[in-house]
C-alpha cells in the first residue's frame, strides 16, 4: 500500500480480549464502510495485537488525531468511518486524545481539536465546532452562553 495521500490511520486492536468482544466484526465493518465510501486512498487500517486496554475493547485508535475509542461495535465502526468521510468528529466512545504532548482522558469540557466534548453521548453538541473566541473561555462559560442563545 502506498501511503502517499493517506490522511487517517486506524489501528484496529485484534488482541485476544478485543477479539472475544467482537474486534474482527468491528474490523470488517470499518473496512467495508471505507470501501463503500471509496476512501481506501485516504484511510489506512492496520490490525494490531493488544493495545493494553483489554477491559474496554474492542479498541480503535485514530491517527493523526491520536484519539482512542473504547467499546467499539460494528455500527460504531461504520459511524467512525462516516465521520472521517464527512470530516466531522466522532466522539461517541472516545476515551483519550493526544494533545500534542501527552494523552489526556476525555472528560466534560475538554477541547478536542476544536470540538467541545460535553461528556454525554446523546448530547447533540458533541460535534459542534467552536469559534476561536469560544475556545479561549472557560467550559462553564461556554455552556451557559450556548444555553442563552
Automatic annotation (TrEMBL):
Q: What superkingdom does the record give? A: Bacteria
Q: Which InterPro entries match?
A: Thioredoxin-like_sf
Q: Name one Pfam family in it.
A: 2Fe-2S_thioredx
Q: Specify where the region named Disordered lies, as residue ranges.
A: 119-149
For bias kind Basic and acidic residues, which ranges apply? 122-149
What is this protein identified as?
(2Fe-2S) ferredoxin
Amino acid at each position: 500500500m502506498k501511503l502517499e495521500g493517506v490522511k487517517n490511520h486506524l489501528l484496529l486492536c485484534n488482541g485476544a480480549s478485543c477479539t472475544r468482544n467482537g474486534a474482527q466484526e468491528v474490523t470488517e465493518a470499518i473496512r467495508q464502510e471505507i470501501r463503500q465510501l471509496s476512501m481506501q486512498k485516504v484511510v489506512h487500517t492496520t490490525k494490531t495485537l493488544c493495545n493494553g486496554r483489554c477491559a474496554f475493547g474492542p479498541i480503535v485508535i485514530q491517527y493523526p488525531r491520536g484519539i482512542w475509542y473504547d467499546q467499539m461495535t460494528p455500527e460504531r465502526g461504520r459511524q467512525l468511518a462516516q465521520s472521517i468521510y464527512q470530516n466531522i468528529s466522532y466522539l461517541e466512545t472516545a476515551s483519550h486524545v493526544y494533545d500534542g504532548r501527552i494523552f489526556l482522558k476525555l472528560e466534560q469540557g475538554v477541547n478536542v481539536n476544536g470540538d467541545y466534548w460535553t461528556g454525554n453521548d446523546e448530547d447533540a453538541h458533541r460535534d459542534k465546532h467552536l469559534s476561536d473566541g469560544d475556545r479561549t473561555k472557560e467550559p462553564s462559560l461556554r455552556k451557559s452562553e450556548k444555553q442563552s442563545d
